[in-house]
Amino acid sequence: MDHVEHCDLLEVEIDNFADALEVAPPAARVPSCPDWSVADLAQHLGIIHRWAEHLVRVRADTYVSSDAMVFEQGPVGADWIREGGERLVATLRASDPDHAMWAWGHDQHVRFWSRRQLHETLIHRMDIDLATGKAPETDARIAVDGIDEFLVNLKSAAGFSPKVRELRGTGEVLQVRTSDADANWSIKLAPDGFELTVDAATPAASLYGASMDVLLVLYRRLPLKSTNVAGSGRQDLIDFWIANSALE
Asked: Structure pTM?
């Protein structure tokens, strides 16, 4: 997928989230984000969209906290989500994806933000689906891109997800594979951290399942045991990875 497709898919997911928000009770709890209500989730996503739009529009060369920006805070609802989302998509589409700028992840270019905001919005749309009893859905190709985006950027998330720093080991390899797409990743845990690798070593443990289920497990949106994702090899390594790898 490229910047243009990420923008197109982001536009769709913003509408999906807004549509779901229109029928979701604002006070309903979000089981995959247990400290939040639906209203809290919507406010978070609306602020994230406005924050990212500002960063891309000014081509920020360093981190700027959303607390330092003055955003309209609502009223939180579908129209507010669409308003911020439409501005975000318009700014991304008008920007050169290869323009260098600050990003919290691996790719320090505008294109980081179109990809990141697609998957931020996708995961939170799945959160609201889970809060309203709807089974989350997405195409396998999008889910595979989401898994890759998550794993590529996870190491850079240690600044705001401190448990990521605990992901160390002695050379163990955890393999992640999808059953509905030809995609796999190998993660090597070393004493100084982890990295994606093409190491041919036999994995100590593996996760295997439909790409959307794997995505939800990696994001800790659903527990492994409640999905059709199969874990093999060292269960303690799988549990260790899942416990420390979520974005917070």
From this structure: 0.96
